[in-house]
Design brief:
single chain, 616 residues, mainly alpha, four-stranded parallel β-sheet, binds iron/sulfur cluster
Length: 616
């Protein structure tokens, strides 16, 4: 009788589970295939560290992360126990009296205690503490799931006290079995489905942050316009979200009070998919305004513990809008500059040439030069940043590095790519690649983190590979044999203080992982480096990326991202801010100009090093 009843329950609840899973699997299978398993070794090691070891979950929020990790490890550990109990209860095979099962139960006991402690902590956090990342409302579903897990662990622990054959033991067994079945039926429709999907999503996540495969125009690819266009990884991502809000609290746009919320973007995608709105325009679902607020800093994607990739969705949708002529007005001007003059400022080549002549730069020749210095749009045309490049040239000359530049450069195409103008990006990239191939450098140095990312990573998608290094990294290695103790004021830096705060550029630190070299340089040359909140691999963006350098921020809700960052830097008490990216420098100086009276000064990293070297 009890076997029959269990069969009935299993058919109903497993049926409910299967139906819901089938809906989601169908949607994933129907989407254009964007799954990739390249770099298998990297994927396996990341899987072991981030899924099995739960590193990302624990590192970002140690206490909550560890509590979550206990629940996850318990979920995995109890898999075999649950299977054996059900096989026995259904009368298929009884393994519950074997020696190994008895040993297994003993091993599971500390797991059960750890899960119990973890879930009670998470329950209190969710229902009483309620951190902002989890949203305003207490989720009833989360409370129910937490109570389910608590019941499962208590009923398991009670098996040590109760005789399985006695009435109390039988009731305990049935409660355990029914809660498992109810849990099973509940999870596919809830965020707890990530228990099943997140190992797959983490494995399939691109090894590259912000991976944006080139559009193939011959296949008439134009980007993402409707729900129908969403690729299989994006659909999988939408069903994996655990609603933890890490992407949200790390997003500089959300942090500055704007409408963009990367968590909401993922959940809106999920809703649209489940509602079957296949023809619905993505610009309508997310609101176009929100889509243009993203700086492409990568914080959301980098912080997500379950392998969700926001940027292919955000920039893919921008591509769809641009292909329909729906880019915001300020981008029209930038595109026009890039089209006519191949640089974002719209300035003529003569100006670059003047700089090249005045800095006495040689044209690159692989037989005479060790490295090619890539000036970039900022280096070629922006007067302030040219000072930084002159400082770099002085360092290279002082250390006998033979270098040259190209006679002509175009913008690397980053602002076009990250605002969705793929056609323009590919035109610029292909022309630059042709010039670079003709020049034949083995190594390129640049002071622009966006150039490092685009030429180093994005150009590889056209088959062009070259070693490109940010000047901070190159100069750090170049000056390792020097120890400078002099801390005097040099090289036009006004009253350069010993105490500085270093602002990590997103494209150097988060995308490139280069956080130690700039700090090593600063300390090597006598600075006491203060750390702001949001530093190293998870910096707070300056607000320039994704084409937003040219946006009219005054019309936006909330604060300017650069103002928020400037305040964070000021709060360290250091009155000298060191930057290593031309765009960070422009944004933060702009923020300083509109901030209340302050005596903060900015110095570029290369200018700092060059000044100290001269003094030495
Ligand atoms: S890339 Fe940065 S700005 Fe864009 S949604 Fe993600 S966190 Fe926000
Ligand atoms: S997208 Fe990732 S980080 Fe953001 S809420 Fe979902 S699971 Fe958390």
């Amino acid at each position: 009788m009890s076997t029959l009843l269990l069969w009935l329950f299993v058919v109903v609840f497993v049926g409910a589970f299967t139906l819901q899973v089938a809906t989601r699997v169908r949607l994933i299978a129907a989407a254009p295939n964007t799954f990739s398993v390249d770099q298998l070794g990297f994927r396996i090691s990341r899987f072991l560290i981030d899924v099995v070891g739960q590193r990302r979950t624990i590192v970002e929020r140690p206490v909550a992360g560890l509590a979550h990790a206990f629940v996850f490890w318990g979920f995995v550990a109890f898999g075999g126990f649950t299977t054996v109990e059900f096989l026995s209860g259904l009368g298929i095979i009884d393994l519950t009296h074997t020696g190994w099962f008895a040993a297994y139960r003993v091993v599971l006991t500390p797991f059960a205690m750890a899960v119990l402690a973890g879930i009670l902590y998470l329950l209190i956090r969710r229902a009483i503490v309620r951190p902002v990342a989890l949203g305003d409302k207490v989720s009833v579903e989360s409370i129910v799931i937490a109570l389910f897990i608590t019941t499962l662990m208590i009923t398991f622990l009670l098996t040590w006290r109760l005789d399985e054959a006695a009435i109390a033991g039988r009731i305990n067994w049935w409660i355990h079995a029914c809660v498992i079945l109810a849990f099973l039926a509940l999870i596919p429709g809830s965020k707890h489905f990530h228990l099943v999907l997140s190992p797959i999503t983490v494995f399939l996540k691109s090894p590259e942050l912000g991976n944006l495969p080139n559009l193939d125009f011959e296949k008439e690819q134009v980007g993402l316009e409707t729900v129908n266009d969403l690729g299989s990884k994006i659909v999988l991502d939408a069903f994996t979200c655990v609603e933890c809000g890490r992407c949200q609290v790390n997003c500089p746009a959300w942090g500055a009070g704007k409408e963009l919320n990367p968590k909401a973007i993922i959940l809106q995608t999920q809703d649209a998919l489940l509602a079957g709105e296949r023809e619905r325009k993505l610009g309508e679902i997310y609101s176009e305004k929100v889509l243009w607020q993203c700086t492409t800093c990568g914080a959301c994607e980098n912080q997500c513990p379950v392998g969700i990739e926001h940027l292919p969705l955000l920039i893919g949708t921008r591509r769809g809008l641009v292909s329909n002529g729906d880019a915001p007005e300020y981008l029209g001007a930038m595109y026009n500059n890039m089209e006519r003059r191949s640089n974002i400022w719209g300035l003529s080549y003569d100006q670059r040439q003047k700089f090249v002549d005045s800095a006495a730069l040689e044209m690159f020749d692989p037989t005479r030069h060790d490295v090619l210095v890539w000036l970039g749009c900022a280096g070629a045309f922006e007067a302030d940043f040219q000072k930084s490049l002159r400082a770099l040239f002085e360092i290279l000359r002082a250390r006998n590095v033979r270098f040259g530049v190209l006679s002509k450069e175009r913008c690397n195409g980053d602002p076009a790519k990250r605002t969705g103008n793929e056609y323009m990006y590919q035109e610029l990239a292909n022309a630059n690649i042709a010039d670079l191939k003709a020049a034949g450098p083995k190594k390129i140095i640049t002071s622009c983190p966006h150039c490092v990312k685009t030429i180093g990573d994005d150009y590889r998608k056209f088959g062009y590979t070259v070693e490109i290094i940010h000047s901070a990294v190159f100069v750090e290695e170049l000056t390792r044999d020097l120890v400078v103790s002099d801390t005097g004021d040099t090289s036009g830096v006004r009253h350069l203080a010993d105490t500085v705060v270093y602002h990590d550029p997103c494209y150097l630190a988060r995308y490139g992982g280069r956080v130690d070299e700039p700090r090593s340089l600063l300390t090597r040359f006598g600075a006491d480096v203060k750390e702001p909140v949001r530093n190293r691999e998870n910096p707070y963006c300056c607000g320039a990326g994704g084409g937003l350098l040219f946006a009219d921020r005054e019309e936006e809700p909330g604060s300017r991202i650069s103002d928020v960052r400037f305040k964070q830097l000021q709060e360290t008490g250091a009155n000298t801010v060191v930057t290593a990216c031309p765009f960070c420098s422009i944004m933060l100086k702009g923020a300083q100009a509109s901030a209340p009276q302050n005596d903060v000064q900015f110095v570029d990293l290369m200018t700092f090093v060059s000044g100290r070297l001269k003094k030495a």
